[in-house]
Amino acid sequence: MHRVFAIAVCALALAGCSSTSELSSLDVFKTGPIMDTVRIESEPPGADAKASSGQSCKTPCALALPTGQPIAVTFSLAGYESQAEQLELVTGMGEPPHLRPNPLYAELTAAPPAKPVKKRPVRARRQVAKPAAEKPAAKKPVAKKPARASTPAAAPAPAPAPAPAAAAPAAPPTFAPPPPAASSPWPAPPPQR
After folding, report:
1. Which phi and psi angles does 54 have, rounded to 5°?
2. How many CB atoms are located within 10 Å of the residue 71 CB?
3. For position 83, what pLDDT does the model report?
4. Is the pTM of this model over 0.90?
5. d(CA 184, CA 186)
6. Cβ burial 147-157 (10 Å sphere, 16+ → b, else e)
7. Confidence at residue 113, expressed as pLDDT on a 0 to 100 scale
8. Strands 95-100, 83-92: parallel, antiparallel or unpaired by DSSP?
9. What is the number of alpha carbons within 13 Å of residue 126 lying toward its C-beta?
């Protein structure tokens, strides 16, 4: 029996030594703020509720708030005006302090529609046509002919030579179709007679 008693004393002594580090800081004896759980609701539900103590949630929800002072709760939801509600601190004889109203309820009002921004009509600028000055007929650049393939093919018809500039009034230019390419995969058209 003495052995059991000795083992129990040793176990208590070891347990006491392991807990001395917690007792030396004296944090065990400090009390935190008294918390009160407040139910938070809104119409429409889903609003962001943010307390002045820094806690936040989406309604409907419950927050554990400190009861040391009155707290403001701000409700916000897209498409609705933000709204702030106040929680009062209530202390009574023989009971812990608590916040009221509990539950806290906020009815959000729809935000007015944004006024459309009126844009001034864009005026088209008038362009004044300037009389075209007569220019002498200039030679038009002629495109280079593609290189011929090593195999003989139908010879393309030579392009007509450009008409020399005459003193007579300029006639509208006529365009000849481009000569067929020698490397074309399609057969050459028969020559015109």
Report:
1. 105, -10
2. 22
3. 93
4. no
5. 5
6. eeeeeeeeebe
7. 80
8. antiparallel
9. 3
| Tokens describing residue 119 | 């844009």
pLDDT at residue 18 in the model: 57
- Secondary structure of the chain in HEC code, one letter for each residue: CHHHHHHHHHHHHHHHHHCHHHHHHCHHHCCCCCEEEEEEEEECCCCEEEECCCCEEECCEEEEEECCCCEEEEEECCCECCEEEEEEEEEECCEEEEEECCCEEEECCECCCCCCCCCCCCCCCCCCCCCCCCCCCCCCCCCCCCCCCCCCCCCCCCCCCCCCCCCCCCCCCCCCCCCCCCCCCCCCCCCCC
> What is the per-residue pLDDT across 115-169, written as a single tens digit (0 to 9) for each?
776 777 766 666 666 665 565 555 666 666 665 555 555 555 666 665 555 555 5
